[in-house]
Amino acid sequence: MLDTLVFVTVLLPFLVAALLLVLREQNLRKVILVATAGALILASLAMLRAGAFTLSPAPLYDTLVTLGDFVILFVVLCVGLKRKNQIIIWLTLAQIVGLVWFEFFVLKEHGHTPAFFADNLSLVMVLIISIIGSLIAVYGIGYMKVHEEHLHLTKSKQPGFFFFIVLFLGAMNGLVLANNMLWMYFFWECTTLCSFMLIGHDNTEIARKNAERALWMNVLGGTAFLFGVILLHKTTGTLSLQDILARGSQFAVAGSAILAPMFLLVFAGMTKSAQVPFQSWLCGAMVAPTPVSALLHSSTMVKAGVYIIVRLAPLYAGTHFSTFVALFGAFCFLVTAGLAVGQSNGKKVLAYSTISNLALIIACAGINTPAAITAAILLIIFHAISKALLFLCVGAIEQKIGSRDIEAMRGLHAVMPRTAIITIIGVMTMMLPPFGMLMAKWMAIESATGQFLIMIMLALGSALTVLFWARWAGILLAEPFGKPQPENQYTSVRLPLVILASLAVLMSIASPFVYSALVSPVVDLYYKAASYTVTGLGNLDNPTGMFIIYPLFILLGLGFFYAVKQAKRVSASQVTAPYMCGEQLVVDGKAGFRGPLGQPVVAASSNYYLERFFGEDVLTKWINVIALAVLVIMLFGGAL
User: Fold this and answer.
1) For the residues of 371-426, what is the DSSP string, one character each?
2) What is this structure's pTM?
3) Which pLDDT value is given to residue 577?
4) Are strands 590-594 and 600-602 parallel, antiparallel or unpaired?
5) DSSP 259-316
6) 451 CB contacts (<8 Å, ≥6 apart)?
7) Nearest in space to 125 (alpha carbons), one of 371, 365, 383, 330
8) Handedness of CA 473, 475, 480, 486 (dihedral sign)
9) Which of the residues 263, 329, 569, 613 has an alpha carbon 20 to 30 A from that of 105?
């Protein structure tokens, strides 16, 4: 049974991807994609029900994984040579030499290391990847049809696109289920190659440039990952992640030799999750089609980075290195939230807010207490759902109105009523209590009690987060709803939006169950202590405080219902034009005023984006320098 489930979640996507690459019949491709999505979702749910397991495939697969490592590395090397990128070339050569030396002269054989093992953290990740990733793949069916029509392509590039999308899902499931660290490295490199190909999918000059940047930054992380695995094997004598975590208490002491490989692996996670100063690759990935952006940000690439950092957290608990990880995460959380404040481009707001939330997860891993790890896992779950939803909404909106600028979304309800409401729900789930994201942020800040600097940065970052989400929600709610026009949308686009919006709300309502069933077992297993208790009313309680859930949901539901009801009653005739100090004019049917030289000017309103304080040009250089300094201090002050 377990063999079948692992086959469906890991190997089947590789086989389906190969089929999609050669398949040219569009309708059959749709059927195969939907069927694969259904199989992944059902298999992930069945795997959760089966519970923890360890699995050892036939020894032949070790050989295939090793072969796959070298195939990927040589493909990346060829890309580096073609692009004449010296960083890619030398880092890839370093990986090839290191892997040859380790595989054939040090390790010689993999021994009896089980390839896969799963605990609740792995199973949570498989659920996120398989459910959210599958919905994004289905969304891509309708989206890519319109996307290619806009590009006026004479020949569809969808076979290659869906090849890498589905391959990505299999690689991520393999990564989070991997027990053998060399297997994890193989899947890690698979995600790097997939992201490079997907970011450069449209093959424009800017797409190629940003794909190359993403590749060299992630190759840097891959190099750190490989040599971290080599050092970890030298320190522990095993490649089994399960064994290393089981003996975690032997290693988690200040000055332990395990901290050097921990730094390399955590550093690899930081590059993969696009933390400062590597944030530019994820922001650059916004040039890719929206399903790629959604996949990278919610359920695959960047989640691999925080997964490995949280997964390894018990091994560096109680060390100075852990404190530096918390400090680095808190700093990145604050400054990237600030960068998001300075953006009006919807995708860039989502990109910086993603980096910010990932940094918060890293800060929780560094705080490294039961309460902090609880917050980290809940953030992974709720962020994946809401961020996927918002990216898909922005993609649908952009294709309809021709802009991804949030200022252009005023009055969206009149044009796309269903999508406008779903987008509002997505924004609300990111910023309002008692939705899961706000609850997890509250837990994160609460867990930082006693670490004053970290707590202050988390609180300030959370305040900035409210600012840019509230601004976006205000734009969507600024115009009268009135009577909307019918919204035409492909079923493959509409259905994922509705499902994700429902999941964002229902999972938050079920957050006590989510904590008890999915999160608490992980914390209990590795930290031997419970962080929260669920009261009879479904509230989450700990010695510091209580998070009230259901009474707040009732109030929020009543308030939202009343607000929508009142908004629908407001007609266009009841809207008062802005007062222009007696210089009122009507310009092309719109309110305006008499400007310089008596020329009529249309009145326009816009939010203030504080670019003098939070603009990319103002902040990026300095935060990159500070982040690099913290990384150096983390290495020499915490890991060596």
Assistant:
1) HHHHHHHHHHHHHHHHHHHHHHHHHHHHHHHS--BGGGGTTHHHH-HHHHHHHHHH
2) 0.94
3) 67
4) antiparallel
5) HHHHHHHHHHHHHHTT-TTSTHHHHHGGGS-HHHHHHHHHTSHHHHHHHHHHHHGGGS
6) 323, 326, 367
7) 383
8) negative
9) 263
Cis peptide before 277 (omega within 30 of 0): yes
- With the C-alpha atoms ordered 261, 264, 270, 275, is the resulting torsion angle positive or negative? positive
- In this structure, the number of other CB atoms found within 10 A of the CB of residue 593 comes to 17
pLDDT tens sequence across 277-328: 999 999 999 999 999 999 988 877 889 999 999 999 999 988 889 999 999 9
Residue labelled with tokens 């796309």: 416
Give residue 267's pLDDT: 96
- Position 251 scores a pLDDT of 61
Q: Which pLDDT score, from 0 to 100, does residue 111 have?
A: 59
98-102, long-range: CB < 8 A, 24+ apart: 98/223, 98/226, 98/227, 98/230, 99/69, 99/70, 99/73, 99/226, 102/226, 102/229, 102/230, 102/233
Which pLDDT value is given to residue 639? 61
What single DSSP character describes residue 107? I
pLDDT value, residue 427: 95
- Burial-class residue 155 by CB neighbours within 10 Å (0-12, 13-18, 19+): exposed
Q: If you search the block for the tokens 């290619």, which residue do you land on?
A: 148
Report whether 302 contacts 394 (CB < 8 A).
no
Q: Which residue, chain included where needed, has tokens 């797409």?
A: 207
* Tokens encoding 391: 């990216």
> Which residues, including other chains, have CB under 8 Å from residue 50's CB and lie 6 or more apart?
1, 2, 5
Query: Which parts of the chain register pLDDT below 70?
Result: 108-111, 248-255, 480-484, 530, 536, 570-577, 580, 582, 589, 637-640
Amino acid identity of residue 375, one-letter, is A
| Closest residue by Cα to residue 541 from 516, 523, 522 | 516
Which residues make Cβ contacts (< 8 Å) with residue 599, sequence separation at least 6?
A: none
Written as one string, the DSSP assignment of 329-364 is HHHHHHHHHHHHHT--BHHHHHHHHHHHHHHHHHHH
Give 561-589 pLDDT, tens digit per residue. Answer: 887 777 777 666 666 667 767 677 777 76
User: Could you give the C-alpha distances from 465 to 277, 305, 327, 360, in angstroms and in order?
Assistant: 20, 22, 19, 12
Instruction: Using alpha carbons, list the distances in angstroms from residue 93 to 5, 165, 265, 504, 550.
Output: 36, 27, 19, 44, 56
| Sheet containing 600-602, strands listed edge to edge, beginning at the edge strand earlier in sequence | 584-587, 590-594, 600-602
Residue 331: half-sphere exposure toward Cβ, Cα within 13 Å: 20
Of 610, 592, 613, the residue nearest 601 (C-alpha)? 592
Cα 232 from chain centroid (whole Å): 27
Two tokens, residue 78? 């060829």
> What is the per-residue pLDDT for 361?
97
CB neighbour class for 46 (10 Å; exposed up to 12, middle 13-18, buried from 19): middle
How is 413-477 classified by DSSP, letter by letter? HHH-HHHHHHHHHHHHHHHSTTSHHHHHHHHHHHHTTT-HHHHHHHHHHHHHHHHHHHHHHHHHH
Measured CA angle at 371 (ends 537, 533), to 5 deg:
25
